[in-house]
Amino acid sequence: MDTATAPALLYEQIAQHYLGAIRSGALQPGARMPSVRTLTQLHSVSLSTALQACRWLEDQGWLEARPRAGYYVRRPQRMALPPSSEPPARIDATQYLGIHERVSDFIARCELHPVRVNFANAYGSPDAYPAAALTRAATHVLRQHPDLLVTPVPPHGDAGFRSVLARRALDAGMRLTPDDIVVTHGCTEAMNLALRAVTQPGDMVAVESPTFFGLLQILQSLGLRSIEIPTSPQTGISVEALSLALQTQPDIRAVVVVPHFQNPLGSVMPDANKAALAALCAQHDVALIEDDTYAALGDDATPLRALKSWDDHGAIIHCASLHKILAPGMRLGWISGGRWHARIRMLKYAQSRPNDTLAQRSVADYLGSAAYDRHLARLRRLLRTRREQVAEAIATHFPAGTRLTVPHGGMLLWLQLPPLRRNATVFETALREGVRIAPGHIFSNSERYNDYIRLNSSIPFDTQAVSALQRLAEIVRSQLA
Amino acid sequence: MDTATAPALLYEQIAQHYLGAIRSGALQPGARMPSVRTLTQLHSVSLSTALQACRWLEDQGWLEARPRAGYYVRRPQRMALPPSSEPPARIDATQYLGIHERVSDFIARCELHPVRVNFANAYGSPDAYPAAALTRAATHVLRQHPDLLVTPVPPHGDAGFRSVLARRALDAGMRLTPDDIVVTHGCTEAMNLALRAVTQPGDMVAVESPTFFGLLQILQSLGLRSIEIPTSPQTGISVEALSLALQTQPDIRAVVVVPHFQNPLGSVMPDANKAALAALCAQHDVALIEDDTYAALGDDATPLRALKSWDDHGAIIHCASLHKILAPGMRLGWISGGRWHARIRMLKYAQSRPNDTLAQRSVADYLGSAAYDRHLARLRRLLRTRREQVAEAIATHFPAGTRLTVPHGGMLLWLQLPPLRRNATVFETALREGVRIAPGHIFSNSERYNDYIRLNSSIPFDTQAVSALQRLAEIVRSQLA
Ligand SMILES: Cc1ncc(COP(=O)(O)O)c(C=O)c1O
Ligand SMILES: Cc1ncc(COP(=O)(O)O)c(C=O)c1O
Fold it and tell me: Rounded mean pLDDT of chain A?
């Protein structure tokens, strides 16, 4: 609003300003209108102009005056417009230039349709996690620390949380002190920090193929190029292929690997491969970034050795989080940065400051307790049961030619479908019907996985899930080449 | 540890591994040692080798066996080493290459010494905020939503929180819908996203001089160059000087401004300057990024009009947070990205995923209530009282030649000292004595502010604070040129 125009129209301008706010939903029915005094100050107008604006809005039926309380937005039936939001199906890919249009388009598109059955995410369903224990713990922390929410957060994360993470890391063969750990907003922020610490825009990063689409998006948004290394559904990244790439591509500065229950494949690297990979990266002086967010989810409770446990030169960065294994709603992750640790600490400070304390304190005691081990045991069983149920339903309903390696842990199934006419149609048709899946083409920059889809097998296996799978199978059938 | 060496030494290697963990603090006194069964799997050894390792550690006094519970780390008096941490005063600036060595060095150095009196941060002290009300609200949310902590977080932030932010934004003259807002981890993350959305590495960004050191660090860590525009302690950035810069520097892609209670100056831009600035940036097609985190802290309760309220072309990005005004411990901020909003949403997804819900829900109701307005009124009075007390103490104790413009809001005082021999000595001497201040040189890439310091005037004005100010004054005196 331009306050410099003719005073005769001023009250109308002010009224129009607030009318727009009411129409757009910024001022919702029942909300208090700024006081007349506030209006005079905000718009540099006289009391009578401000009053005139309010009276006009009242006359038009937009406001109601409440005695001694000022003006309130009425709850009018005739024009109850919802807040504007983006119209369905109008996604402008140019908005995502440099943020991986293919992946961004998938993420944005998912939001356009209400979801009934979600096979697209990579978290267990809420019933798989110890909600009551976490809620109790958080309530307890709030009671114990009455000033927690108003006290500036400590650097690098809560000391108690980092201690218990260091202790748990021992089970994966890593010897870390609490100071070797920085708490982050999930594995996603950890990966951003790791990549920012060891690369410059323009550098090349070797990744598994197929790989977690979030990683492809992170890489491109940081101006990094990626090179995809063949990866086996059984044993993970091919160390031989990577070795060749390192010999021929001198621009590779980092390798990112998900050693355990890789997303989307579900592969687990044998220890011998992990040792060879660590040695190969050390030999080429290339940073090795380990994303180990699924490690605890094996059907077999045997602890898996982290890549980082082979780190002799501080050249392996370990990233992980609690979203898959303990608390999808808490956004807690961490990073141990090897020789780049001080750098990563500072990048974390510059990027988002240290994490707030409540979530960290809330999980710290639980993570140190035997209850956590019991939760993991239950979670493993539940994931396994549901995975087998979904795999069986797929075998029953999907067309001949569908292929599937069922992993020995985690919650993801990577389905190879028979050749399709138009891959994107399967995703889009299902989406419109409220069934979300992750289409194969977002797991790579190539076209290699166009006939694949990734399904979350951890959702409750109820009639809704089964009929969604059947419907999916029909859609696939309708698109067979 | 290499598992391929002679079996005769295996148990010793394993024992040494865990001994190292105990010594480094990764396995702390009282912690449970991994079970013998776990050791066999983790190190691929036989049961007897694993047992031998544990027995050796027990013999050496490091572990104790508890019946049916396994081995635990003893609480030995003789070698209770604390976890390793970086040795004081050994800061290696090369770690911070590209993350603003000057600012990073300040941040890292602050951590090396325990703090008694902290004048260096930019938050009110905990007693300035409604701790009990926030704690009650968080407890209430946890009770109302038993599955909150285990449910994946919604995109862009909690709808209720974004609604109330949109409503409150009206008081600052902005007409936003909830969809125009993305919740972030503080203003820091918001600034990162804004800059990433509108610039490419190598671009130039115009900033106030002096400016918030965190911004200088963000800019350099993103590979951006900065150009410093003269800024008045009274009226903020010089629009004339910026205009000149825009004419002569075609690489400028964005301007970042703190219009209200600028950090460190405390300046407030008059509305005419804000309008002129908005018009100037529009004319040059340069993004204008507004960091408005202090707006509510004026001595006078008059709402201040956000720069964004002059946004006709979607070219102004508004960033703010709750740390200064409501909850230093909650790390809640937000961004409204104008024409780059879809891009910013996606960058937020790629950088750290949406914020967790608990904190947002906890503050949403409070922000919408009259209790929040009462809190702000109290906070304003408290900040003003303390600011005047500290300013008076400075006038009493600091040497002649000290200059100070006392702002009309906020919590920061920007002191110009008489010329000093070695500026850094004041900061370092005070730091060693447990008194943290922010030295002037971190607020610029130039040497212009070497004789300045920034003090937080909001800490309780008790005898400790007064004697710290007196001591500071002495240190300054000892360094006069
Ligand atoms: C391999 C991998 N890394 C990282 C993430 C994201 O982790 P977070 O939710 O902790 O940010 C995922 C989640 O899908 C993942 O599968
Ligand atoms: C101008 C300015 N912007 C941003 C910040 C950081 O804000 P937040 O704590 O919300 O990340 C500060 C805090 O010192 C500040 O003074």
Answer: 92
Identify all chain A residues contacting B85, using CB atoms and an 8 Å cutoff.
177, 179
Higher pLDDT, A82 or B481: B481
What is the CATH number assigned to the segment(s) A3-75?
1.10.10.10
The CATH superfamily holding the domain B79-88+115-127+373-478 is Aspartate Aminotransferase, domain 1 (3.90.1150.10)
| Mean pLDDT of successive 10-residue stretches along chain B, which has 481 residues | 51 88 83 89 90 87 84 62 42 86 94 95 96 97 97 96 95 94 98 98 97 98 96 96 95 98 98 98 97 97 94 96 98 97 97 98 94 96 97 94 94 95 91 97 95 96 97 96 87
Topology of the domain comprising B130-370? Aspartate Aminotransferase; domain 2 (3.40.640)
What pLDDT is stored for residue B447 in this prediction? 94
Nearest C-alpha in B relative to A331: B356
Phi and psi dihedrals of A40, rounded to 5?
-60, -40
**Chain A residues in contact with B224 (beta carbon < 8 A):** none
* Alpha carbon of B130 to ligand 2 centroid (Å): 20
What is the predicted pLDDT for the residue at B90? 64
Instruction: List b or e across A253-292, with b for residues whose CB sees 16 or more CB atoms inside 10 angstroms.
Output: bbbbbbbbbbbbbbbbbebebbbbbbebbbebebbbbbbb
Closest approach of chain A CAs to the CA of B49, in angstroms? Answer: 17
Helix (H, G, I), strand (E, B) or coil at B256: strand
pLDDT at site A6: 44
Q: How far is the CA of A319 from the centre of ligand 1 (A)?
A: 10
Cβ of B175 within 8 Å of Cβ of A96? The answer is: no
Is the CB–ligand 2 distance for residue B445 below 6 Å? no
- pTM equals 0.86
ipTM passes above 0.90: no
Q: Sort out which chain B residues have CB atoms less than 8 A from A350's CB and list them.
A: 99-100, 188, 192, 214, 217-218, 221
Going from N- to C-terminal start, the domains of chain A cover 3-75, 79-88+115-127+373-478, 130-370
Burial of A428 (0-12, 13-18, 19+ CB in 10 A): middle
